[in-house]
Design a protein that fits this description.
The complex is a heterodimer.
Chain A (H helix, E strand, L loop, with lengths): L2 E11 L4 E11 L3 E5 L6 H8 L7 E6 L2 E2 L5 H5 L2 E4 L11 H6 L14 H13 L15 H14 L4 E5 L7 H18 L2 E5 L3 H7 L2 E6 L2 E7 H4 L2 H8 L3 E6 L4 E6 L2
Parallel strand pairs in A: 3-8, 3-9, 6-7, 7-8
Antiparallel strand pairs in A: 1-2, 1-4, 4-5, 9-10, 11-12
Chain B lengths: L1 H16 L7 H13 L11 H34 L12 H14 L9 H23 L5 H24 L5 H9 L7 H20 L1 H7 L3 H6 L4 H23 L5 H13 L3 H26 L6 H23 L4
Helix pairs in contact in B: 1-3, 1-13, 2-3, 3-8, 3-11, 3-12, 3-13, 4-5, 4-6, 4-7, 4-11, 5-6, 5-11, 8-11, 12-13
The chains are: A alpha/beta, B mainly alpha.
């Protein structure tokens, strides 16, 4: 395990509204990190900073020891991929064209896809069950299908670091489990890193090994799941009463909430 | 694409023969070849008038129409990409209103320092000033996002069109000149117009083509584009400037010709798909053929010449209604 992202006193905001303040955090490679917190607490903004979609107002972010803002965008795109929360486009690209865009950071501007690019796209489409509609238009897919296509596009980038922003929010339970499982395998077998913003705490408990709790733009807790997943922290973050226990059927921690 | 290029070449030659003085197809080819190679022998046995009519009157007009049509269509495709909206066109950001305002002002206060170039130059300056205002306005409200740009464009265009109305109101006799200019025309175009339109089109085309793959990615939304290594703000700004430049030159040369920049990208997307690497070149050719055809209709087919802007809107409007209705029925987006 080595240090991947190093955030030092990072803050971000608009004129009147501060979104993130004073975040210092070290994220290590080879981990499945879950970012958890109430709506509007700055989780998505944090991911935006990590892919350089936005620039912090204060503090520094380093990626593998180098200042993030000095990295060329294309070089970053070869290592870090994102599955955004909302994906809507008005142009009728085919599913395959969209997935192929994941290879763009590796191709010259006027190149046609190489054999290896085609192979990679075929593989990820098979693993995300999107091959059977590879020639349909993305504008005609359902929300969950479109999310799987976006997931496939991010996997086509073959990234060391995969950022997921509620990437399974529209998927059925079968595909949710399938994709989370394949993501977890990337971490355990290939030593890749996943940083996932999640709403479903039980899903996070089943797959993540590190949790980051946020509230109102600040960190509340951060650490291995056995140290951070407890009812006191959940109470502090979400103001709900909960009971954390080990569930032998799923072989993972579970959280039950009081209505 | 070869088909379109062939259609364009055939269109140029055919339309050169149409008009008050009819000239045969092969005679035109001989005149063209002779003029290009500088060898008068090719057309020495023809009527002395024919080469003059072709080379000095019809060809400049025909080529200007083709270049303007191609430029507007390509710019339309680019605008639709950067604004993430298949209903955008080269005029969405108020370039046309700015050019119209500049031209109206030039006509009204009778600016003639630059001779025949005065009105196009003022139109061009107006268009560029408008673009600067739009970019400044949307930068100030949080970056060059699609919504910011469209809103800024609407605001600036609304102010300018009030300004144009005011200019017309106080214009007295010149009001007819202003109105006629605004409706667009290719009458009395010279080789200077051809070179200007061709130059901006070529520069624009190269820039569009260079960024066409990035434009595909930008159409996926900002977050996705950034995560694929594209600097969206920079790509947007460069494409915005170059597409506006192409449209501004087109408007300055020929007045406001609507619907070409909206319709052609729409129609062509049905054939090529939304991939800008194919769409933009095809739009260039198809737009050239279309506007050349429309201009030939008003010049040589109709009993009396009507402004080309009216013709394109009259034909394009209903056609767009048809496309729009059909799209709703099949349920497919664009």
């Amino acid at each position: 395990m080595s240090v991947l992202f190093e955030l030092n006193d990072v803050s971000f905001g608009y004129k009147e509204r501060r979104i993130l303040h004073g975040i210092s955090l070290i994220l290590e490679s080879g981990t499945f990190v879950g970012i958890i917190g109430p709506n509007g607490c700055g989780k998505t903004t944090l991911l935006d900073l990590l892919i350089r979609h936005r620039k912090p107002d204060g503090g520094t972010i380093r990626f593998r020891g180098k200042a993030l803002e000095e990295m060329p965008r294309r070089a970053l795109a070869r290592e870090v991929a994102l599955v955004p929360q909302h994906f809507y486009i008005d142009f009728p690209f085919t599913v395959k064209e969209v997935v192929m865009m994941g290879r763009y950071p590796f191709m010259g501007r006027f190149d046609t896809p190489s054999e290896a690019d085609e192979d990679r796209v075929r593989d990820v489409m098979a693993s995300t069950h999107t091959r059977r509609f590879s020639n349909r238009l993305v504008t005609e897919l359902s929300g969950g299908e479109r999310q799987r296509v976006v997931f496939a596009r991010a996997l086509a980038q073959d990234p060391d670091v995969l950022l997921l922003d509620e990437a399974t929010s529209n998927m059925d339970i079968y595909h949710t489990l399938r994709l989370m499982k394949s993501a977890a395998q990337r971490v355990s077998k290939e030593k890749k890193t996943i940083i996932a913003v999640m709403q479903d705490i039980n899903l996070a408990a089943a797959f993540c090994n590190v949790l980051v709790f946020m509230k109102n733009g600040s960190l509340v807790a951060h650490g291995p799941i056995r140290e951070t997943l407890d009812s006191k922290i959940l109470k502090a973050v979400f103001e709900v009463d909960s009971h954390v226990y080990y569930e032998s059927f799923t072989q993972s921690m579970k959280v039950a909430f009081r209505q | 694409m070869l088909l379109l290029a062939g259609a364009l070449a055939a269109g140029v030659v055919t339309s050169a023969g149409m008009g008050f003085i009819r000239i045969g197809f092969f005679e035109i080819l001989r005149i063209l070849l002779g003029s290009v190679t500088g060898n008068d022998a090719w057309f020495s046995e023809l009527d002395r008038l024919f080469p003059v009519v072709i080379m000095d009157v019809r060809l400049p007009r025909i080529l200007t129409a083709a270049f303007v049509g191609g430029g507007l269509s390509m710019a339309g495709a680019v605008f639709q990409g950067i604004l993430l909206n298949p209903l955008a066109d080269p005029y969405t950001l108020g370039v046309s209103a700015g050019a119209a305002f500049g031209a109206s002002l030039a006509i009204l206060v009778n600016i003639t320092v630059m001779g025949t170039w005065s009105i196009p130059l003022c139109a061009f300056l107006g268009a560029m000033a408008t673009l600067a205002a739009v970019v400044f306005l949307s930068e100030g409200s949080g970056g060059l996002s699609s919504n910011n740009l469209i809103l800024s464009g609407i605001i600036v265009a609304a102010i300018l069109s009030a300004g144009i109305s005011f200019l017309k109101y106080i214009a007295d006799e010149q009001v007819a000149v202003i109105i006629f200019w605004l409706m667009g025309s290719f009458a009395a175009k010279t080789w200077n117009d051809v070179w200007m339109a061709a130059g901006s089109l070529m520069i624009g085309f190269l820039i569009f083509l260079f960024y066409s793959r990035d434009l595909n990615v930008v159409a996926m939304g900002d977050r996705t584009a950034v995560s694929l290594g594209v600097d969206t703000q920079r790509v947007r700004l460069i494409l915005l400037l170059s597409a506006s430049l192409v449209s501004a030159v087109a408007v300055s040369v020929s007045g406001i010709i609507g619907f070409v920049g909206l319709l052609v990208p729409h129609m062509m997307r049905a054939f090529t798909g939304p991939d800008n690497r194919k769409l933009i070149p095809v739009c260039g050719l198809a737009g050239a053929v279309l506007l050349l055809g429309a201009d030939t209709v008003t010049r040589a087919v109709l009993p009396r010449e009507i402004p080309i802007g009216i013709l394109t809107a009259l034909i394009g409007g209903p056609f767009f209604c048809y496309v729009f209705r059909r799209r709703r029925k099949t349920g497919a987006a664009s």
